[in-house]
Amino acid sequence: GAVVSQHPSWVICKSGTSVKIECRSLDFQATTMFWYRQFPKQSLMLMATSNEGSKATYEQGVEKDKFLINHASLTLSTLTVTSAHPEDSSFYICSARDLDALGEKLFFGSGTQLSVL
Amino acid sequence: KQEVTQIPAALSVPEGENLVLNCSFTDSAIYNLQWFRQDPGKGLTSLLLIQSSQREQTSGRLNASLDKSSGRSTLYIAASQPGDSATYLCAVRESYNTDKLIFGTGTRLQVFP
After folding, report:
1. How many helices, marked H, and strands, marked E, lie in chain B?
2. From the CA of B24, how many Å to the nearest CA of chain A?
């Protein structure tokens, strides 16, 4: 089946540094990818929709200048947390839709646990 | 604003039991509802997707029902096994025009031998 690869699985960084998370669709092309965030004991919340070749669409309350999204190819989207701070510590997970699959097929990456010291 | 709630937050049962996980949503105008499984260190796996016009979907030992009017969905797991231990999430998609999924907080299930 379709696989979405997300790296890194976990990252610890110092406050003020930037962190890049990659999301790759391994065996299908994804014109659209999604980035979610999950704080402890809260539900997954959509941060932004990443569109190949165009600007990402951000959900209300998500700072686009802080969470930079690049979707330069049909198989790769990246999320960069710029100048990370402890409040950005969270679980980040991406998903991608396989348009060629019958029905609606959403595949998720394994997630990235970000800890900002 | 759509809100999705899952009860219970955690559940521990012996192997072989049949169990029911509950999901409720505040706005009945949904496009579809999905149940996912999340294993530690792994991504989400879609288990069942129910379109708004459907009442239930079945896959193996899993059966999901949807009652839009009451804003409820249940995931029934028959003859539970230790391998079913995971966090189960339900998520609604509000309309065809949006790709956004609104997730519940999940039910953490442990099935012990």
Report:
1. 0, 11
2. 14
| Assigned token pair, B94 | 């509000």
Residue A27 bridge partners (DSSP): none
Please enumerate residues of A whose Cβ is less than 8 A from a Cβ of B.
4, 6, 9, 32, 34, 36, 41-46, 49, 59, 93, 95, 97, 103-111
| Of B37, B39, B45, B43, nearest in space to B21 by CA | B37
SS3 B23: strand
Tokens describing residue B19: 């169990």
Token pair 């540094």: residue: A17
Contact between A20 and A79 (Cβ < 8 Å): yes
What are the CA-CA distances from residue B57 to residues A75, B47, B79, B85, B87 (Å)?
31, 10, 17, 21, 20
Q: Looking at chain A, which residue has its C-alpha nearest residue B105?
A: A43
Distance from C-alpha of A34 to C-alpha of B100, rounded to nearest angstrom: 8
Q: What residues of B are in contact with residue A97 (Cβ under 8 Å)?
A: 99
Provide the residue-wise pLDDT of chain B in tens; the chain has 113 residues.
899 999 999 999 999 999 999 999 999 999 999 999 998 877 888 899 999 999 999 999 999 999 999 999 999 999 999 999 999 999 999 988 888 899 999 999 999 99
Q: Which position has the token pair 């999705």?
A: B4
